[in-house]
From TrEMBL:
Sequence segments annotated as region (Disordered): 1-74, 371-422
Composition bias type Basic and acidic residues, residue spans: 394-405
Domain of life: Eukaryota
Tagged with keyword Amino-acid biosynthesis: no
Protein's UniProt name: Transcription initiation factor TFIID subunit 5
Name of the gene encoding the protein in the UniProt record: TAF5
Extent of Pro residues compositional bias: 23-40, 59-70
Annotated localization: Nucleus
CC annotations in GO: transcription factor TFIID complex
Oligomer and partners: Homodimer. Component of the TFIID basal transcription factor complex, composed of TATA-box-binding protein TBP, and a number of TBP-associated factors (TAFs), including TAF1, TAF2, TAF3, TAF4, TAF5, TAF6, TAF7, TAF8, TAF9, TAF10, TAF11, TAF12 and TAF13. The TFIID complex structure can be divided into 3 modules TFIID-A, TFIID-B, and TFIID-C. TAF5 forms the TFIID-A module together with TAF3 and TBP, and in TFIID-B with TAF8. Component of the TFTC-HAT complex, at least composed of TAF5L, TAF6L, TADA3L, SUPT3H/SPT3, TAF2, TAF4, TAF5, GCN5L2/GCN5, TAF10 and TRRAP.
């Protein structure tokens, strides 16, 4: 943990710009709590330095527009800037030392600016011996080069911007629990102290706007990304410094210029009109504690930097340096369309570095199971007169995945439960069903069977279907969980202990005898939650059922006795979704506290806590090989987490609204995501790239499912339709060369209509769940809502 805390502290502030590739700099995600402050606060020599420290990070930056060619005037300017700054912050002791030192050295060249800062920062004099280091320290312009420059910059950030580093974690640490954020709020907000003339804010912003609108077309689209984060920070700065009228005027003048997908965020922002409002506001804290990421080509960035330096526009330059992370890439600037496809999340785009880790997306090798031919099948084959052709085909089904997938994780990478005899029987059944599976495609679309919940006045909030399609479960707003049998076989409970003692355990039909016929019914109602049930999931072996609720718990129910076995308590707020691993035993949950948790059925505490989202975790999904978990969030990002070590290995941005559905392709290579923006986005997990965008739905996409062989993707929406898309066509001829991967220049077709295979309307039933049976019949479900 200490190591993690150290990482963000070094690069967090200064290295933002220098990095040419844009990948190495800050790494805020882990949660470094109190590790940073102790080292930074005493460096100033005053305990009170902490709150002011975050503010300190900004004022030194007025120097950037200054760096001139002749060193002496620059250093003199710099020295004066530092002295003024120390006086403003009442750091008289440091100011005296600086004056004395400066006089001692006759205010000469770089030494005048650099050595004085050394006494204030006990540990850093060694590195700060050249003028460029001083400029990097004071202006944070991207001048530092090589490791030495990085060290100087890092040391400098520790002395000057200390608490600004502290400002990064709170949103991350607290995982969204505002109570935990409270102690750090003052440190977070204090970065807004000591700023420029409030009357000039509108002038600064409109000046930049005019510059960007007059820039060449190729740069304009990229630089326009600056509008939104600068607008928010400048507004918050005015509010924090209690210039309420200027803030109101600034908001009214420029909020209409922002992209339409930020309008919900701006509505929240418009309610923050007083300094007091900012204290407990989560949106504000999110914005302040996570750097807004912009991906810009080097040419566009140089153009911006030159403009700000010529105009002496310190206010905007400070914000760019302090609150934005500019991920610079070499190459052609991206077009408006390419940028629009990727932006829209709460914290900008994902850094390219975030998607470079290796992901084992292949499938695990299936255990070898002999598939006996039962009599029925043999008779059928003899009638057809082709027994020999069918038999090898059946065996090949069993051996299809015997070859190890090169992209698969090692078999023992995470411990998975051993197969029981009943699991083996189920696998054999599955393989038999697979031989009768319909091959789907554009010419052969699946039949769709819709389960409509009528009179669901309890409010249907979640649905799941067992893998063998024998049971369906509904979670309801009245806190009940209801399980139906969708086959003629009725649901029965196990007999009481006294009756079980009388059974002959050696008999062949012992599994039948232990069931109590008197309890047989089509529907079982499970009581236990004390709030709406938002997520349900059957275990792969159909012995257990999970449900998660507004009451903050996840419950595990037995489908043998229809009683609750365990209540897992870890989330403090409503739990929005839960899902079993494809191998059983593990399950994941995600909720309003912004974290996802990995559990095992036999542990009452979570095994992993996945923290990093900036808003509620709304949906969760296991990768088919169970080594990874995908989470979708209201922060409009999708993250992929490694179960083994809890690391976030992919961040996907591009949705313009909260994400409500996720589906992995059966081969594990691709992920489909659906959100309130009505778009379905497709991602290549290996390369960390968006590879497709399916437009057609007019409302939230609540359900996504690939067919059993992955040829078709079905999507279900609140617009009362099920749509079928040609997944084969989307994923063939993918451009995943190194250049695309490195720069994110994705080219999506304008129109996804040629991928749409069919649209199926319901009368008035939003679709909230989809499921392909083992033979590729599509089951859809939802509750009828009379208009």
């Amino acid at each position: 943990m200490r190591k993690m805390a150290a990482l963000p502290e070094e690069p967090a502030e200064v290295v933002v710009k220098p990095d040419p590739e844009g990948g190495v700099p800050p790494q805020p995600p882990p949660a470094p709590p109190p590790a940073a402050p102790p080292t930074t606060a005493p460096a100033e020599g005053e305990p009170a330095g902490a709150p002011g420290g975050a503010g300190e990070a900004a004022p030194p930056k007025p120097a950037p527009p200054g760096p001139a060619t002749s060193p002496a005037p620059t250093d003199r300017q710099t020295l004066l800037a530092v002295l003024q700054f120390l006086r403003r912050n009442n750091l008289h002791e440091s100011e005296d030392i600086l004056r004395r030192e400066a006089r001692l050295l006759g205010e000469e060249v770089a030494a005048a600016a650099l050595s004085p800062s050394a006494p204030g920062a006990q540990g850093t004099p060694g590195g700060e011996t050249d003028a460029t280091g001083g400029e990097a320290l004071l202006s944070r312009v991207a001048a530092a080069s090589g490791a030495a420059g990085g060290a100087v910059a890092a040391g400098a950030s520790a002395t000057l911007g200390g608490p600004a580093v502290v400002a990064v974690p709170p949103g991350k640490v607290g995982g969204g629990v505002p109570v935990e954020d409270q102690p750090d709020v003052s440190a977070v907000l204090s970065a807004y102290k000591q700023q420029g003339d409030p009357a000039l804010y509108e002038e600064y912003y409109s000046g930049l706007k005019h510059f960007i609108e007059c820039a060449l077309d190729c740069h304009r689209a990229e630089l326009s990304q600056l509008f939104y984060p600068l607008f928010v920070h400048m507004y918050l700065e005015l509010v924090y410094n209690q210039h309420e009228n200027e803030a109101k005027s600034f908001f009214e003048r420029f909020h209409g210029d922002q992209e339409c997908y930020y309008h919900d965020d701006l509505r929240v922002l418009s309610s923050l009109t007083k300094k007091e409002h900012m204290k407990g506001n989560e949106t504000m804290l999110d914005f302040r504690t996570s750097k807004f990421v912009l991906r810009i080509s080097r040419d566009s960035y140089q153009l911006l930097k030159r403009h700000l330096q010529e105009k002496q526009n310190n206010q905007i330059w400070n914000i760019v340096q302090e609150h934005l992370y500019i991920d610079i890439f070499d190459g052609m600037p991206r077009s408006k369309q390419q940028i629009d496809a990727m932006v829209g999340s709460l914290a900008g785009e994902a850094k390219r570095e975030a998607n470079k880790a290796k992901v084992f997306f292949g499938l695990l090798k299936e255990p070898e199971i002999e598939v006996p031919l039962d009599d029925e099948d043999e008779e059928g084959e003899n009638e057809e007169g082709k027994p020999k052709k069918k038999k090898p085909k059946r065996e090949s089904m069993g051996s299809k995945s015997k070859k190890q997938d090169p992209n698969a994780p090692p078999q023992t990478r995470i411990p998975l439960p051993e197969l029981k005899d009943s699991d083996k029987l189920d696998k054999i059944m599955n393989m038999k069903e697979a031989t009768k599976r319909v091959r789907l495609g554009p010419e052969c679309l699946p039949s769709i069977c819709f389960y409509t919940f009528l009179n669901a006045y309890q409010g249907l909030t979640a649905v799941d279907v067992t893998d063998d399609s024998s049971m369906i479960v509904g979670g309801f707003a009245d806190s009940t969980v209801r399980v139906w049998s969708v086959t003629p076989k009725r649901l029965r409970s196990v007999k009481s202990a006294a009756d079980l003692g009388l059974i002959d355990k050696e008999s062949d039909d012992v599994l039948e005898r232990i069931m109590d016929e008197k309890t047989a019914s089509e529907l079982k109602i499970l009581y236990g939650h004390c709030g709406s049930v938002y997520g349900t999931s059957f275990s792969p072996d159909r012995n257990y059922l999970l449900s998660c609720s507004e009451d903050g718990t996840v419950r595990l129910w037995s489908l043998q006795t229809f009683t609750c076995l365990v209540g897992y308590k870890g989330h403090n707020y409503p739990v929005w979704d839960t899902q079993f691993s494809p191998y059983g035993y593990y399950f994941v949950s995600g909720g309003h506290d912004r974290v996802a948790r990995l559990w095992a059925t036999d542990h009452y505490q979570p095994l992993r806590i996945f923290a990093g989202h900036l808003a509620d975790v709304t949906c969760t999904r296991f990768h088919p090989n169970s080594n990874y978990i995908a989470t979708g969030s209201a922060d409009r990002t999708v993250r992929l987490w490694d179960v083994l070590n809890g690391n976030c290995v992919r961040i996907f941005t591009g949705h313009k609204g909260p994400i409500h559905s996720l589906a992995f392709s059966p081969n594990g290579r691709f992920l489909a995501t659906g959100a309130t923006d009505g778009r379905v986005l497709l991602w290549d997990i290996g390369h960390g790239l968006m590879v497709g965008e399916l437009k057609g739905h007019t409302d939230t996409v609540y359900a996504l499912r690939f067919s059993r062989d992955g040829e078709i993707l079905a999507s279900g929406s609140m617009d009362n339709t099920v749509r079928l898309w040609d997944a084969v066509k989307v994923f063939e001829d993918l451009e995943t060369d190194d250049f695309t991967t490195a720069t994110g220049h994705i080219n999506l077709p304008e129109n996804s209509q040629d991928l749409l295979l069919g649209t199926y309307m319901t009368k008035s039933t939003p679709v909230i769940h989809l499921h392909f049976t083992r033979r590729n019949l599509l089951l859809a479900s939802g509750a009828y809502s009379p208009q």
